[in-house]
Design brief:
Shape: globular
Mean pLDDT: 90
Distance between the termini: 53 Å
Strand order of the largest sheet: 4-11-10-9-8-5-6-7
Structural class: alpha/beta
Helix content: 40-55%
Amino acid sequence: MNYGNAAERVIQDLRHLVTVAAPGSRLPSVRELTARHQASPVTVAQAIRQLVAEGLVEARSGRGTFVAEPAQRRAAPDLSWQTVALGPSRPGEAEMQALLALPPAGAIPLSGGYLDADLQPTAALGAALTRAARQPASWQRGPAQGREDLRAWFAREAGGGLRADDMVICPGGQAALSTALRALGTPGDTLLVESPTYLGALATARAAGLRVVPVPVDVDGVRPDQLAAAFARTGARLFYCQPLHANPHGATLAAHRRTRVVEAVRDAGAFLIEDDYARDLTIDGESPPPLAADDPDGHVVHLRSLTKSTAPGLRVAAIGARGPAGARLRTARLRDDLFVAGPLQQATLEFVSAPAWARHRRMLRTALRTRREALLTALRRHLPELAGQPVPRGGMHLWIRLPEGTDDVALAAAAAAEGVLVFPGRPWYAAEPPAAHLRLSYAAAPAELMDEAVRRLARAFRRPS
């Protein structure tokens, strides 16, 4: 340690006093330490903060600084009363925490729902945010529904069926989805969902008090006949759907089904919440237009997020609807958090309006194709019994059906013990799953790690039960 540094001298002095003094003993004041070590009050304060963070020192406002009580000697507070006060936890919370958990050191993440750091346009986003932060106007209060020019961009991206005034900017797709379910439904209402469907939608719907009813899907997306039957049986007025590269099953709603699905919604006098999270994640061919692009009667509520296709920290999305439904969405967003931070909106608009956005999307298309093929190749090599399944034309995940009798949750736990993280299929179903699945992400780990990841998964798969 360099004892010529004033801050280090103060820290060393205080560490010594802590070792020889009893817990609760008063330590020298800032003024005393300043004089003793010829250091500035700011330097002394920084040294004290470091030791407070280490748990060695306790700073008591207006009274001074004291030797902290050793952690093992502190009486643990009795918080058991909270169990009674809070009641049971909400369904889906544990699964959401697992979905967002950071991978431990050395583990290969095939479970993540965000792009690998190497695929994120952080340099362009950082530059845009720096410029936005320097503009005084971006720090001022803007329209509660968000910047008009950013709303206009989202409206154009929706295919022209919505206007800027129909859109409201939200802090991420999850917030937008929560807004839609609370604004358009009331506790006790029924929400129809694809089966399987996005885990976050299930958790949010249950937290909002909605009754969730699954509708079967196949390789062409949700089945229109089953959707119409579900509307007739339940009287539901809400249907949550991911028509493009659905998470987790990867299917895109086939062209011959699009009209029939919208007709089923229209005949039921219902709303279809279109989660267009994967608009920028198409790998093969071209994406069909959003369902909102051809919705003259206002049945489609369109949700578009940029987080999945850029970086987790770009919490910017938009949700739009026509007529009274749009008004309810805007009111609900106002109640939640007033508005999204101005610098973030400005940076987002600058990024998506610049050539960097088109370059990023081209790079992403190529990189995701490479990683998807690396994962498929590794499955054919190490787990041929799981290969040969439908391959999504975009998105971030493979939806792998497991052999009959396989416990997907136990397999995910065994894989974690081998150092590869995968997500079991069970939590993605609103009811009993018809078969065991794994969701394997090819977006969250480099292509060169896919072979080793599947090698580890194969060891877990073949481990004796």
